[in-house]
Design brief:
By secondary structure, the chain is an alpha/beta fold. It contains 15 helices and 18 strands. The strands form 4 sheets. Strands 1, 2, 3, 4, 5, 6, 7, 8 and 9 form a 9-stranded mixed beta sheet that branches. It has a 5-stranded mixed beta sheet with strand order 10-11-12-14-15. Strands 13-16 form a two-stranded parallel sheet. Helix 2 links the parallel strand 2 and strand 3. The chain starts with a strand and ends in a 6-residue tail after the last strand.
Amino acid sequence: MKVSIIVNCHNGEKYLEECLESIKKQTYKNYEVIFFDNNSYDKSKIIFKGYENEKFKYFRCDKKKNLYDARNEALIECSGEIITFLDVDDTWHEDKLSEQIKIFKSHIDVDLIYTDYILRDEYKKKNKKILLKKINKDLTNNLLKNTKIALLTVAVRKKTLEKINFRFDPDYNIIGDFDLLIKLSFNAKFYHQKLISATYRYHSSSETNKNFIKLIEELKNWKNKNLENKLSEHKFIIIDSVSFYKEINVFKIKPDLILWYGWSELINTEIIDNFFSVMLHPSPLPKFRGGSPIQNQIINGKLDSAVSIFKISEKLDEGDIIYQKYLSLEGELSKIFSEITKIGTKLSIKMINNFKNLKLKKQDNSVATYYSRRKPSQSEITIEDLKSLSSLELHNKIRCLQDPYPNAFIRDKDGNKLFIIKSKVN
């Protein structure tokens, strides 16, 4: 039983050798590696050429594609009966393939196998075991509500993919793995193997570390293609831009639920009064209401926060809380936004699926705090800041102003700006 291993790569030199070595050390040897170089300009090609043989096959595109378009290109080249995926920053444990092949051979009705894994946090230098559970019934809805299945642990029969004519949606950069699992869940039989088979590396340059708005755009796209007709009895829309808001007529659509994500404008009170409208706010409401919540929390030295989803009311960020989940503000801004994306996605899907039974909790206005949206001029580190702030306070100001926000800066004697992208406290 031959296994095809798809390895997608774009400038993956940092971890590539470790990834390839984990494949080479597999105790199961009947495999091929489909290495798809997505127009890398680092040393990825040179590193892979050191492994290239009849098993390790090199393919390249001369114009960068998004991740899932690149996965489709690699799928075309697969000749194995079993399809697997391993990205360049992750690794497999040596018995991963051999243990999964045993299941495929002994359970001919199983279409897809997934396992437990280790999450390696490159920021905290810590490993965490992710131990999953067998999903006994209602597979699709369980995956929608909460799935921690990682693609690097998945092995799926090629004929199962062919049966549904599956291809990754090239419109996606973030949620393609989720899309695959949901589509397969309609007809395929999933098998949870109690085995830690892989290590997933979490770091700032990972493809999953995208901003929340991009994630919401993809979820909206996915919903339009799937949820409305197949997976949800409720009509909902996601409004994330003024242009989209102007294109639609909310009163004509009459949605059950409106998600105003990434929204910073005033909302018509007539809409608030007539439709169940919600918003996501990355703070432990009722604290840090108002603008720039992440920046204001970090500058105030806060390390513990939350992602809050709340029902919009006429007053700023004062609506009843629907869900609130812990968020750490340690580390770089890209890591924090990645966590907001993950938490926000899970809570949003949970809310949609439990819409009829939501329990709302009133905010305690007596402990509320308010902050204004920060201005680009406030990104300057002045002489007074250097005199009055500690090194940790300066570091927090710098790290909360990493991209996509106006970076911290100092001025030279001529008034020119010198931007500070990163800092470190000894």
